[in-house]
Design a protein that fits this description.
The protein is mainly alpha-helical. The protein has six helices and no strands. It is globular and about 35 Å long.
Length: about 100
């Protein structure tokens, strides 16, 4: 997405809703080795937000989000070819 498209895109909602908090709690109980920031990023990935949207929501840049995603993948023991978003969405759907 270009900078112009990002500027014209609707602003993502804040991450303070009850559903967000419940999902944060659920992931915290599953992944005790993740930091609070990593857990917040996981919830947003599970809600299918793009890196630039997540960066905007937590006031950082896309590069930092990419680094967090890398660290999360390592902590979860994901192998090459296993996608973080796929794992998080699958677990979210199993919950239902």
């Amino acid at each position: 997405m270009t900078d112009l498209e990002k500027q014209n895109a609707p602003r993502p909602p804040r991450d303070d809703g009850i559903e967000f908090k419940q999902e944060l709690s659920r992931l915290a109980s599953l992944y005790k080795n993740l930091t609070l920031k990593e857990l917040r990023i996981c919830v947003l990935i599970g809600q299918e937000y793009k890196n630039w949207e997540i960066a905007e929501m937590i006031n950082t840049n896309e590069h930092n989000i990419e680094n967090h995603r890398y660290t999360i993948r390592k902590k979860l023991g994901l192998k090459k070819g296993e996608f973080l978003s796929t794992v998080l969405l699958a677990e979210k759907n199993e919950k239902k």
